[in-house]
Amino acid sequence: MNKKIRVILAGTGKFSAEIFEAIIKDSDFEVLSLISQPNRKMDRNKNILTTEVFNLAQKYNIEIFQPLKISEIYDELAKKEFDFFITASFGQFIPSSILKLPKILPLNVHGSLLEKYRGAAPIQYALLNNDIKTGLTLIEMTSKMDAGDMLFKTEININENDTALEIFDRLAKTGADNICKWIKQIFVGDFVRIKQDESKVMLAPKILNDEAELFFSLTKKEALSKIRAFNDQPGAFILYNEKRLKIFRATNMKISTPISLNFADGKLYLIEYQFEGKKRVKHEI
C-alpha cells in the first residue's frame, strides 16, 4: 500500500487494546492518537489503575487523550488529518461533530451479530438468552447507538461452559485477526453496506448490579445463564446463610465442592466463588 492509512482509535479496556494493537503493529497504518476513558479505578491500596488503552499508548509512545467527555477534545482532533475514527468498547457517546471529522468513515467494532444486540452489554445478553453463537460487526457510526450500516461481520460459537470472560477474549482475538483487513478493504472501496432491519433489533442495555442477584426460585438453567453472563462484571450473587456469596462459575455436574445450591429444579455445584470479605475460592473439576 503506497499511502499509510491514518487513524484515531477510541477504546478503554482489554477488548479495545487487543484490537488496537493489531492496527498499531500493521505497517500500513499510522495511529495518530489513542483515546480512553479516564484512569478512575483504584486497587485495594487506593492506587490509580490505568486503563488498558492508556497502557497501550505508553507502550508504543502514542499520544493519549482521556477526556471525561470526548467533546472536550474536539478542537485537538479537528486539527488532525485522518481517514478513520475507530471505536471499540469505548464507553462514551460520540457526538456527530466528531463523527464528521474522518475523511472516510467513523467505525465501531461491536461485540455482537447486529441487529442483535444493540447496547452496552451484548455479550452478557447473548449468554443470558442461551445463544449458541455470537460475533463481531463492523459498522459505520451514526448519531443513533449501534444503528449504522453493517460493513463486515464474523461469527464465533458459544460453548456450553463459556462465560463472558471467554467470549470477550475470543471476540478480542477475532477482532485483532480481522480489523486491519477490513479497514484496508474499506479504504480501497471493496465493501458492501448492509442496512440494519429495525424490525429485528434487540437491545442490550447496561447491566445494573441488582440484576445479577440470584434467587433459589430460579431454575438451574436460569441461574447458570446469569452466572455465565455476569462472570466478569458485576458478578452473580446470592444470599446464602445470610451472607452474600458471589458466584463466578458453577456446573450441573456433581463434583466434589464444599458448596452446592438447591434451585427450583435441582442443584448447581460451585466451581469458583467468593464470600463477602473473603478470598476467592476455585475448585478444579
UniProtKB/TrEMBL annotation:
One Pfam family linked to the record: Formyl_trans_N
Domain of life according to the entry: Bacteria
Domain Formyl transferase C-terminal, chain residue ranges per copy: 207-254
Formyl transferase N-terminal domain segment(s): 3-176
Matches recorded under CDD domains: FMT_core_Met-tRNA-FMT_N (cd08646), Met_tRNA_FMT_C (cd08704)
Listed EC numbers: 2.1.2.9
Example GO molecular function: methionyl-tRNA formyltransferase activity
Keyword field contains Transmembrane: no
Family: Belongs to the Fmt family.
Protein name: methionyl-tRNA formyltransferase
